[in-house]
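An instance as discussed:

___
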Amino acid sequence: MLGTILAALPAALGVGKVGAAIGAGIAAIGAGIGIGKIGASAMEAMARQPEEAGKIRTSMLIIAALVEGVALFAVIVCFLAVN
């Protein structure tokens, strides 16, 4: 019984690493989509109100940085979950 559990252990670790890689990829893709939507919305807002472009750009950069931080956190959690 213990022998079969130990024999299956390396296969389970491989599946965990594949799952972590998939999770990290999904987090990166989600962040890319989110930042793309933020950029598109900011460009549209600046086109509609050019006098507010500075404020819109500042807000866009702050929000994009927060999205990127969450994505980085998700990638780190995916890779830490394997160990």
Q: What stands out?
A: The mean pLDDT is 85.
